[in-house]
Amino acid sequence: MKRRTIILGGGALLAGAGTAFIALGRGGEPISRHSFDWKASDFRAGGTAAVPADLPEPIFRAEPQCVVTSAKTLGPCHTSDVPVRKDVTEGVAGLPTRISLRLVEAENCDPIQGADVEIWHTNADGVYSGRAASMCNRDDADARSTRFLRGRQISDENGVVSFLTVYPGWYSGRAVHVHLRIIVEDRELLVSQLLFDDALSDLVYEGHPDYAGRPQRNTMNGGDSVFSASEAAQFILDFERLDPGVLQASYTIGLVRS
Hints:
This protein is mainly beta. It contains 2 helices and 11 strands. It has a single domain, classed as Aromatic compound dioxygenase (Protocatechuate 3,4-Dioxygenase, subunit A).
């Protein structure tokens, strides 16, 4: 059985098919801190066009993410009429990334089926699509007329949704992030955001050809304007490099439905 290494927001997890474990310290923190041995050249470029359809199933850790996920601002770059689709790229370039989210009841970790999950984030240049606030895509008429990097999925019997996208770009004042909105039985249960590991963002922005030519970003996770430095680590996605050169990003979201 092939073992897969998942980089946590704080440690490395080794998993076989369907099983996973992590060594924790006495306070519940991962014992080993992660480091990325990957290079930017280990990943595909140009977007998702050549990504194979049979990617391996995502692996989620059971602990400690099976807790209530905190709400965050919707932000000025949200739009309406977002389509249900798995590949949200509309052909934009970038490091192909699959974002997989597992929705569970915070009380008992039971999966939530049938939830409407929406994500949105920027392209490699740090620009949002759609007719949103002017700050989201100022002076970019092409971006305003499209819906790239926006999409919705309905959670399956395991509470899982997966979006095929690209690694987000950065913009001033914000750490690298993806927005999400979750509706269950016509009730909005959560609007929040998830973060990307700073070391991984450095690797991508400094070496991947689709992100070349931009200035150095000015905001890390510890200095974000939405997340405090003390809470940012709780919102960092887990990562894995899949064999086709695709980045897998995963997170378990705890929800309260009462």
